[in-house]
Structures are given as C-alpha cells and as structure tokens.
Design brief:
This protein is mainly alpha-helical. 63% of the residues lie in helices and 6% in strands. It is built from four helices and two strands. A two-stranded antiparallel sheet has the order 1-2. Strand 1 and strand 2 form a beta hairpin. Helix 1 crosses helix 4.
Length: 70
C-alpha cells in the first residue's frame, strides 16, 4: 500500500476500527510487538508526525498563555 500511495497508507495506520473497539492499526502493531511493521518507513513517518504535532501544540499553548506581571 505504501509503495502505491504513501499518504493513504499513513492515514490507514491511524484510522480507528470501530469493529474492534476503535483501536488503530498502530495500536494493534505495538500490542502485537510487530517489529517488522513498526520498523517500516510509513509507521515511522506517522509516529514522527504525531509526535511533532503534539509538541507543536504544547509550544503553541505555552506561547498563548497570558504572562503574569508583578
């Protein structure tokens, strides 16, 4: 899938599967300790994007917090 459409493949990794209690493919892979899947470029890309997106939110919120002056 990744060879044909990188974006779609990465989206599939984070798509929640309602039939299995809204878990993601990423959660299944980690729970199953699927090293072969976890070490793929697609999985790494998705995890990096998720990680840096969360860091960006934290940094953005820190900047938006009002400054206290004494």
């Amino acid at each position: 899938c990744y060879e044909y459409n990188e974006t779609k493949a990465c989206e599939l990794i984070l798509r929640q599967i309602s039939l299995f209690g809204n878990i993601t493919i990423a959660q299944v892979a980690v729970s199953a300790k699927s090293k072969k899947f976890i070490l793929t470029a697609c999985f790494g890309r998705v995890m990096s994007e998720a990680w840096y997106d969360k860091l960006d939110e934290i940094n953005r919120n820190a900047v938006e917090m009002p400054m206290l002056t004494i």
